[in-house]
Amino acid sequence: MKKQLFCMIFIVCVLTSVLLITSILWTHGNLVTWNKEWDADSLQKTQINRLPSGKESVNLTDGVYSYYLNITQFLSEFPVLQDYQCSLTLTPHGHFEETLAQPLLILAIKSHLASGARRNALRQTWAREGEVSGYWVKPIFLTAQTAKKGQTEILKIENREFGDILQWDFSESHHNLSLKERCFLEWLHHHLPRVAFIFKGDDDEYVNPYAVVQYIKEHGQSPITLHGFRQPDLAVMRHRKYSVSRTLYPFHKYPQFLSGGGFLYPGCSVKSLYEASQKIPVFPLDDVYFAFLSLASNLTHRHDARFRVLGLAFDACQYQRALVVHGIGPERMMEIYQVIQRTQCT
């Protein structure tokens, strides 16, 4: 009898233990699963709703229209543009402010890593470091990175020889051109606080440094004025290369902006532009982004048709008078430059 009672007690204990362990494991499994789901959901919400350091939604006005830039939507559609921390991989060398008696004019040229032929053509023509009518002119090519290691090595060789490369570690892409704007402003602010003027352009254009310097002497007195080819009230595109979504930018027009094909701004404006770039969302079109930076900085624009951002049929004398002519390949650049140098214009 005692033996049977002992067996029954033992069986009850075993069954109770099994039930208890099963209950614990089931509860723990559900808890782990719930925690995983909560963590993933929390992480996703954190990624969507986090605010990058200093960035915020802004409402800008040009006196006629207001433009609201919602940082949450920019983080959702273009998070890298908002969060990227400017990390340099190559920097230029040569004569800068500390060694110069003349005011410094930077020719900052956006260039794709693979565009070595264009850079070489410019170095052999107008993109040369030296004195021009009392200004020290320093060309700098603004580049990013690609997955092709060979191109990166070639760029390092270029920089050792010419000292004119400024490169960051983000990838070359159409939308990332805005990062070149933001990161270049950061570099200027920290490394060249006394730069006199900056010309921004592309590597497929002819620039006349002599005409640019003369323009500065005639029209460059205002510390808050940007100079270029003004684009008035352009309609927003919803398709193809320059499209932006309605959720990102619900307005039909952009504020007036200077064409990114070539414009000029005083060094005095860099501080306010840089400070604005630390606060407002980074727009995925570089010239529109610069327009918002200038609005946030209370800067004005001066239009001049000699910024030939839409191109110009070749005429040596017209090119001598132009500040910039957009849309010229490397071989053609070499040809027209020789003609321009030989031509005497009245």
UniProtKB/TrEMBL annotation:
Keywords: Glycosyltransferase, Golgi apparatus, Membrane, Signal-anchor, Transferase, Transmembrane, Transmembrane helix. One of its GO terms (molecular function) is protein N-acetylglucosaminyltransferase activity. GO terms for biological process: poly-N-acetyllactosamine biosynthetic process; protein O-linked glycosylation. It is an enzyme of class 2 (transferase). Gene3D superfamilies: 3.90.550.50. The keyword Ion transport does not apply. This is Hexosyltransferase. It comes from Leptobrachium leishanense (Leishan spiny toad). The lineage of its organism: Eukaryota, Metazoa, Chordata, Craniata, Vertebrata.
